[in-house]
Amino acid sequence: MQTHQIEANIHQLKNCTRETMNMALIAVGIRNSNLEKLATAAAGRIGKVEVDHGDTSCKTPDAAAYIKKTLDRKSKKRR
Question: Which pTM was predicted?
Fold first, then answer.
């Protein structure tokens, strides 16, 4: 699934599918610098993804922030 398909559909789909698409966007964004730019831009256009996690402490990560956080962490490990 491409980022434009995620953008077009994420807010209309079932709860678990929204969560999976958000995580897929994150996975794409941490793959390489070109995909990071595309995924981060898509995440900005998508905005906040609402997922009902029920009575748990789970939270849906903001894709753009999570991509940045993960890449920062990877960068520090390489040093």
Answer: 0.91
